[in-house]
Design goal:
This protein is mainly β. Helix content is 8%, strand content 44%. The structure holds fe (ii) ion.
Length: 132
């Protein structure tokens, strides 16, 4: 099993001194709208919050995977150089359309950097309302 990096992999001192390195490899999860059972919900995963990752042919974010707890929901494979322009830096971002069918999800995501390996997001608990 490959090593999986999270922000908790690093000591508090490393988290501070390597803040940009950690941020640009970390997947962040966002849900658009109010989750309702049976209604499509966009779950977005963006790699990097304040810092953009390099995006060239030797070094880029190649996959983004969305999980509910330990159950894989979807995985997207990305080509190099699709999230950047001349500066060769960008934030890989994908939106997964999920139709919620239960009360609670525990979303988490992973991304793979071709040079720095597998990175994991924080867990995001999402409560789902009954359909109006
Ligand atoms: Fe990297």
């Amino acid at each position: 099993m490959p090593k999986i990096f999270t922000s908790q992999t690093f000591s508090p001192e490393e988290r501070e001194s390597r803040k940009d390195f950690i941020d640009k490899h970390t997947p962040y999860i966002f849900c658009d709208g109010i989750p309702q059972k049976g209604v499509p919900l966009f779950v977005r995963v963006r790699v990097g919050s304040e810092h953009a990752h390099i995006d060239d042919f030797n070094h880029y974010i190649s996959t983004i995977t969305l999980f509910d707890a330990d159950h894989m929901l979807a995985k997207v494979e990305l080509a190099a150089c699709i999230v950047s322009a001349d500066e060769h830096r960008g934030n890989a971002e994908v939106a997964f359309s999920i139709v919620p069918n239960k009360d609670v999800y525990h979303f988490n995501a992973q991304c793979y950097c071709t040079k720095h390996g597998l990175w994991q997001s924080e867990d995001v608990e999402v409560r789902v309302n009954e359909k109006n």
